[in-house]
Amino acid sequence: DEDAPAPAASGKKLTNQFNFCERATQTYNNPLRERENQTEPPPRVNFSQTANQWIIFDAYQADFEKNQEKGKEKKGGGAGKGAEEKARKRLTVMDTQADDLAKIEHAVKMLERMVNQNSFDEIAQDFKYWEDPSDEFRDQQGTLLPLWKFGYEKARKLAVTSITWSPKYHDLFAIAYGSYDFMKQTRGLLCFYSLKNPSHPEYVFETDSAVLTAALHPEYPHMLCAGLYDGSVAVYSAVQKKRGPLYQSSARTGKHTDPVWQVCWAKDDLDNNMNFYTAPAPMNDLVSQDVIKLELEGGPVEGPDGIKLENLASGTTFDFHREASHLFLVGTEEGKVFKCSTAYSSQYLQTYDAHHMAVYKVTWNPFHPSIFMTCSADWTVKIWDHNKTEPVFVFDLNSPVGDAAWSPYSSTVFAAVTADGKVHVFDLNINKYEALCEQVVAQKKKAKLTHIDFNPKHPILIVGDDRGHISSLKLSPNLRKLP
Amino acid sequence: AEVEETFKRILSHKGVIGAIIVSYDGIPIRSSFAENDVTVQYCALIQQLAQKAKSAVRDLDPGNDLTFLRIRSKKNEIMVAPSPDYLLLVVQEPNDQP
């Protein structure tokens, strides 16, 4: 290189690939040392998911709900949130301790109905589709086809004292159990049954004393008021959690001193409180009670005789007129029927000498505004026009008549049950003197039928007897003719 | 609880051969069958079928959902009721009369 720059300065030096020097040095290599580190492998989870339309939909829904909650929380308060969270924490602890099975409550109920449907398959098919073909030949007669029979073990020895269909759910009905026998007084039962499950009631309430009557509220279909043999009135709700009644009248709040024979809901009054009317015996006392306050209102109606000794008539049944809500009829144990009005509490509008023995049911015709029917232990069913003092029709049924009911689909069809176990169905349009159908329905011999009612929607009757059995019967087409 | 009662009633109803409660990962929680392998078999097979059925229903309309599934065979009938966390299975022999 000292040579290289000198000749480069003197002249252009051609680069010469052979004329070069190489230099190298060798140093000590650094000693190599290996270092290793081994960690636990990161946890792995296998994740698989299908991407269906509904999974995407669900994800969107969950997201939407979260957003909504956030919006609500912002509006709410911080303190409120703290309390809620604590409550939630408590709830979750309780839930895990409680029955895991509670989560499948709905599924279990449905399955029970399905199992029942399978075993009673024939009956379910009959209910829907079977029509008695012989009705085409017999114009003047019809038949009743027995369908499901409802029974409940605890109700075996009790008599059916009242039947009401639910105004909203057409397959739900409530039965009151009790005892008509003065000497043997037992506890009572209130059961709600559904046609979809004939083997077990949907809801059951037990009472201390026999239940004599029950009524379902037309607008709040879960509210039921019941009149008991010990004179008190109780209100139950089908969806309540506790076993006892929601409200019960006691001696302090105006309990009657004798059995309550009938209760009936009235329209909500101005305060939006639900009222109902009761008819006990022996005081012919129609008292309207405010469900929430349970105070006595309304005036008592005096008995007919002027004698000061207690010679009051005892009411056994009553019915309000469908349209003129101030007008009502009361049937008594002596056999008379009184027409009264809520406007005049001290006098009757009219008296009818209806029967020789106790009147068991008085009911207005749902279509014809001036016709009503009475049935009594003196073996007769009578049809009246409220403007006349003599009955329009009299039917003698050869046995004490326990109950009678008008049909909801025709103004001329009605049914009555008697103590000899028969159901009689009449259609005044077709035959004014005889029943279209007289059929023995009682399950065991010597069971007296106590109550009957028509289903508002389906062509079925429910009949209860004094052994605690309930049967449903399908009406044949001849009995269902619309006028 | 009430659910227990209803479950017992179903089991004692005429024609019912057995009932199983399955959790959503296929483990039988409660079974009325004495033989375990029968239970496990039912669980696995039916659960897959129920899932498929539910998927089909919801695919057609995500707003819809499966309420129950019935499989009627020559010898008996298998009824499946799905619920949010569990699956309830009942095997019944459909008779004519209760």
Model description:
- The complex is a heterodimer of chains A (483) and B (98).
- With 483 residues, chain A is an alpha+beta fold.
- Chain A has a domain at 107-292 and 397-479: 7 Propeller (Methylamine Dehydrogenase, Chain H), CATH 2.130.10.
- Helices cover 15% and strands 31% of the residues of chain A.
- Chain A has five helices and 27 strands.
- In chain A, strands 1-27-26-25 form a four-stranded antiparallel sheet, covered by helices on one side. In chain A, strands 2-3-4-5 form a four-stranded antiparallel sheet, with no helix packed on it.
- Chain B has 98 residues and is of the alpha+beta class.
- Chain B has one domain (2-92): Dynein light chain 2a, cytoplasmic (Beta-Lactamase).
- In chain B, 37% of the residues lie in helices and 30% in strands.
- Chain B is built from two helices and five strands.
- Chain B has helices at 2-12, 36-60; strands spanning 16-23, 28-31, 69-72, 77-82, 86-92.
- In chain B, strands 2-1-5-4-3 form a five-stranded antiparallel sheet, sandwiched between helices.
- Chain B starts with a helix and ends in a 6-residue tail after the last strand.
- The model of chain B has no long low-confidence stretch (mean pLDDT 84).
- The chains are: A alpha+beta (483), B alpha+beta (98).
**Which value, in Å, is the CA radius of gyration of chain A?**
40 Å
Mean of pLDDT of chain A: 72
Shape of chain B: globular
Specify the CATH architecture of one domain in chain A. Answer: 7 Propeller
Taking pLDDT < 50 over at least 5 consecutive residues as the criterion, the unreliable ranges of chain A are: 78-99, 269-274, 280-312
Strand order of the largest sheet of chain A: 1-27-26-25
Name of the CATH class of one domain in chain A: Mainly Beta
End-to-end Cα distance of chain A: 135 Å
Give the CA-based shape of chain A: elongated
> Helix share of residues of chain B?
25-40%
For the largest beta-sheet of chain B, the strand count, sense and barrel status come to: 5 strands, antiparallel
Total domain count of chain B: 1
CATH topology of one domain in chain A: Methylamine Dehydrogenase, Chain H
Discrete helix count of chain A? 5
Per DSSP, what share of the residues of chain A sits in E-state strands of 2 or more residues? 25-35%
- Regions of chain B with pLDDT < 50 over 5+ consecutive residues? none
* The CATH homology group name of chain B: Dynein light chain 2a, cytoplasmic
